[in-house]
Structure formats: C-alpha cells, structure tokens
Amino acid sequence: MQNALFVGVSSQVALQRELDVIANNMANLSTTGFKARNTRFEEYLMPVASADSFQAPDRRVSYVVDQGTTLDLSQGPIEQTGNPLNVAVKGPAFIAVQAAGGERYTRNGALELNAQGQIVTSDGYPVVGEGGPIAINSQETGLAIGPDGTVSTNLGIRGRIKLVTFPDPRRLTNEGGNLYASRDPARPAGRDGRLEPGALERSNVQPVLEMTRLMDVNRSYTTVSSVIARLDDLRGTAIRRLADIA
C-alpha cells in the first residue's frame, strides 16, 4: 500500500511539472520568437522491491522520473511587418546579445535603436556584432539589414549581426527575457541560419495542442488524487479493524 502511495505521489509531481511547462508555453503565445518546451519523463523500476523466493514474486515498483524539458525548435509563423529593424530568424540559429551575465542568445528579431544608437532587442539587450557593437549615427539614413545579418546605411556597411548555432540547441536553458544560455560553445551559423528582413517570427506554441495537453494532464492529476485518497481511506479502515481485533 505504501508503494502505491509513493508511485501516486511521484506521478503527481511529474504532472505538476508538466502543468507548469504548459502554462509557461501558453503565457508566451504572443512572445516574438518564443520556442515551446516539452516535458520528458522516464520510468524508473525500483530494484530493491523484489522477493523472488515467494511463489508469486513481487513486482518491481515503477516510478515516474522527471528528465527535464526539451526545446521545440520548429519554425514559428513568419509575419511581414515592413519595419527595417525587424528580422525573422530562419533555421536553427540564434541572435547573440550582450546581457549582464555575458553573451546570451535569442530569436527575438524585434530590434530597435537605443539612445546611444546601438541596435538592441525590444527588451533592451545590445545585439552583438561580429566585429563588436553595432551603432548607427542619428544622421545616417537608409538603414537595412541583409539576410546574412549585414547592417548597412547610406554610409555603407556598419557591421554584421552575430548569428550562431549549437551542436544540440535543445540543451539551451531559458534565462527569462526571451534569452537562452548555453554550456556548449556557440559556433557561426553560416548557411544554417538566415534572416528575413522586414518580418518577425512569432511564437511556435500551438494553442489548440497545448489546451488539449492541459485537459489531459488535469484529468490524469484528478485520477491520481482520487486513487491516493481511496488508498488512504483503505489504510485507515485496515488500522481500525486491526485495533478492533487487538
């Protein structure tokens, strides 16, 4: 009976984790360049719970183990905006930006010019150029960003946005502010990443699928809670009957 309770609790913990992931996905339906996450669970067979010497050997107890989340790298919808500072990242690439903790990475192509003339994201993070920060003088005109990240004005090329990729982008970790961090060294995207000027990549979260997942997880959580409640009642009944016999 105790094993059944422990299995139920492990299931509840896993389902709660999945609810948190789904809620975060839904909260970022309108976040530019957001990539959804999916939970990964694994069965763990408790090796200690066995007694093979009995006529009916004990079954191994199966628990649920949270193996973390993976990044869904599918391309989000591309929306044309006509804004020369908007770029949609295409392919498994990321824009490098400078954050407080060092270089970080984003798919947020809603770029702006700050008071110093630097190209920054909509959250204010300076975009990293291959040759250093990219700054535009207030007198310059004809700002344009090319598919390879080249930034040019009427004065010529002003820099190139640093586009990077990773051996396994699914291992990137979220840091808030639509930023990702990586333990693996970034490498130049090359042909793996291009920019579509005058457009934005929207979130790749699919609301219908997420709502379906949410209902399934809620039902499963309710079912497990009911089983645990019945097991608790059964244990209480057993204790009372044993007390009566004593």
Polypeptide structure, described:
With 246 residues, this protein is an alpha+beta fold. The protein folds into 2 domains: 2-72 and 221-245, no CATH class; 78-201, no CATH class. It has 2 helices and 17 strands. The strands form 7 sheets. A 4-stranded antiparallel β-sheet has the order 6-5-12-15, with no helix packed on it. It has a 3-stranded antiparallel β-sheet with strand order 9-10-11, with no helix packed on it. Strands 1-2 form a two-stranded antiparallel ribbon. Strand 7 and strand 8 form a beta hairpin. Helix 1 runs antiparallel to helix 2. It is elongated and about 95 Å long. The protein starts with a helix and ends with a helix. The mean pLDDT is 84.
